[in-house]
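Structure (tokenized):
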């Protein structure tokens, strides 16, 4: 680390505004379309059937759209880096703000780690036999040095791109999203010309357990629209437009997941998909009768990994930066790179986690999906509560985008968001149709134990309101004297 980077007095504290409409939309949509659609679709079809999986996706998309509406209004009203951190701080105070922020960071970090593990898993599909030099075995998966180093190299590259600047990250995002959309068009073409409705059977599996098994993956699959609020301080468009992009990105992601389910299920009978290595890739190859096309879809999966990885690393670093700048995390996290004006220290920290993740093997994929989801829902629940509180407490607050107009219809949306996010969280509990195993809960607990170390240092008794951020900073500075 350079001397300039460590010197807080010399470092700037304002992020550069370099993103436009498409950049912001590509960040939000690209964050949601990661690698889950490649590796999880076969399991969705096996658990719920074609229409059962689609119903779960539509239900999940509707829930996320409702949550997204609360984000849209709050983002337009408070377009600062940090998103949830600023929203909750203004409505509930410092300590609740820390809890909500830590929850969404936990979700981001688990997905960044997921992508770092998914990347070598995907590359191996294209280049079989790349795994050499065994290291150890984790949950029955043999971790090889060459396999892990592929993930490490990708982690270093994505982190370096983000340190160089959000505009550079946005350019990478744009090209990878466009390639991903091209793959999507090919999937639709292949399904229409070669797919069969008969292959889609069974449309539903008996009972509701399959539906819920797909539904609980929704927070993991749709996390990313909230990257737009994280980067709001770097977006050079009207605040009202930023809020609208949040909702648009959720709608686009819902359409993408429904398309993937339909095209995959039309390609091959359910029993063949269940035994496929990577069902979506094998289905794509079957539609075109070509192994090369299967590898092209995997290349689309790699693009999805990079878009999600890039977006969520950007979002997580802005939240960590915002908390460091606001005194809730060590000040080291609140430093900007003197040349690029990016939150370099926060990027190094989160990028470092992604570099370590591949050494824990491919079995980590499922655990990371499950462990991050409850933390994400905690943050969404708290933002929903924040939306309602600010509607009541600050009716005259400047809201460039007011959800449901001037009446009280917006409060109905807020209450629906609170109820739906609370219900989603309950689905993870023991005894519920989609309860989690002990491994994800262990990762979840470890993250929150780490958070507790920082939580106890957050000043208490700070009155919520527009000046809460400045008061937190003043308290922290006074404590250091």
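Design, position by position:
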């Amino acid at each position: 680390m350079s001397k300039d980077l460590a010197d807080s007095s010399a470092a700037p504290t304002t992020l550069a505004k370099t993103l436009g409409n498409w950049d912001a939309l590509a960040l939000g949509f690209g964050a949601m379309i990661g690698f889950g659609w490649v590796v999880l679709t076969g399991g969705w079809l096996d658990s719920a059937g074609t229409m059962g999986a689609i119903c779960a996706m539509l239900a999940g998309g509707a829930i996320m759209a409702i949550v997204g509406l609360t984000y849209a209004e709050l983002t337009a009203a408070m377009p600062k880096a940090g998103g949830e951190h600023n929203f909750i701080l203004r409505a509930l105070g410092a300590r609740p703000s820390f809890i909500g922020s830590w929850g969404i960071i936990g979700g981001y970090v688990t997905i960044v780690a997921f992508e770092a593990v998914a990347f070598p898993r995907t590359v191996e599909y294209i280049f079989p036999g790349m795994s050499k030099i065994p290291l150890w075995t984790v949950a029955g998966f043999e971790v090889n040095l060459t396999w892990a180093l592929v993930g490490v190299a990708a982690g270093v590259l994505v982190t370096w791109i983000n340190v160089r600047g959000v505009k550079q990250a946005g350019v990478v995002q744009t090209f990878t999203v466009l390639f991903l959309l091209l793959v999507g068009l090919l999937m639709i073409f292949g399904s229409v010309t070669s797919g069969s409705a008969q292959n889609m059977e069974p449309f539903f599996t008996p009972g509701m357990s399959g539906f819920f098994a797909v539904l609980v993956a929704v927070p993991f699959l749709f996390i990313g629209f909230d990257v737009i609020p994280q980067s709001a301080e770097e977006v050079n468009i009207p605040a009202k437009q930023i809020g609208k992009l949040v909702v648009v990105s959720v709608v686009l992601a819902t359409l993408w997941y429904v398309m993937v389910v339909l095209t995959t299920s039309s390609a091959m009978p359910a029993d063949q998909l269940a035994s496929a290595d990577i069902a979506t890739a094998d289905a794509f190859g079957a539609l075109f009768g070509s192994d090369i096309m299967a590898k092209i879809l995997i290349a689309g999966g790699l693009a999805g990994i990079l878009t999600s990885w890039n977006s969520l690393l950007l979002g997580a670093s802005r939240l960590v930066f915002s908390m460091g700048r606001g005194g809730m995390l060590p000040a080291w996290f609140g430093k900007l790179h003197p040349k690029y004006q990016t939150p370099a220290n926060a990027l190094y920290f989160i990028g470092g986690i992604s570099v370590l993740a591949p050494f824990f093997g491919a079995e980590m994929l499922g655990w990371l999906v499950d462990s991050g989801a409850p933390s994400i829902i905690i943050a969404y629940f708290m933002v929903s509560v924040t939306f309602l509180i600010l509607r009541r407490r600050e009716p005259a607050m400047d809201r460039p985008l007011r959800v449901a107009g001037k009446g009280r219809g917006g409060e109905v949306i807020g209450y629906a968001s609170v109820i739906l996010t609370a219900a989603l969280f309950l689905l993870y509990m023991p005894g519920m149709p989609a309860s989690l195993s002990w491994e994800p809960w262990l990762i979840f607990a470890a993250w929150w134990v780490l958070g507790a170390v920082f939580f106890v240092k957050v000043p208490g008794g700070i009155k919520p309101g527009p000046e809460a951020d400045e008061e937190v900073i003043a308290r922290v500075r006074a404590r250091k004297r």
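Reviewer-requested clarification: DSSP finds 21 helices and two strands in the chain. Residues 1-13 have pLDDT under 50 and may be disordered.
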